[in-house]
């Protein structure tokens, strides 16, 4: 039975499942594995902090995701379709694991973030 997102443990569960999909995704996975060469041991805890802060206002995230995405775009051009695919995978993962008000909220926030990143990154 699915429950709503309640705490950091739930955020970690979501982010781990999401990035497991990303790592092998044929449309955008290469950005992470071949272009950015993501160090997952460092990246995942930063993503836990990011999303926990987004959902529960912890103030634990420090960083500039926009600058990272612009840098990545310079190395390998991103498109609107890439951002839309990222968002679809995120929503799919949330829907597989959670149900409730916070689950809907995180999907809406992810869509807003992806849209802002897309417009600022792509110009």
Automatic annotation (TrEMBL):
Signal peptide: none annotated. Gene3D superfamilies: Globins. The keyword Iron applies. InterPro entries: Globin-like_sf, Globin/Proto, Hemoglobin_trunc. Keywords: Heme, Iron, Metal-binding, Transport. This is Group III truncated hemoglobin. It comes from Flavobacterium zhoui.
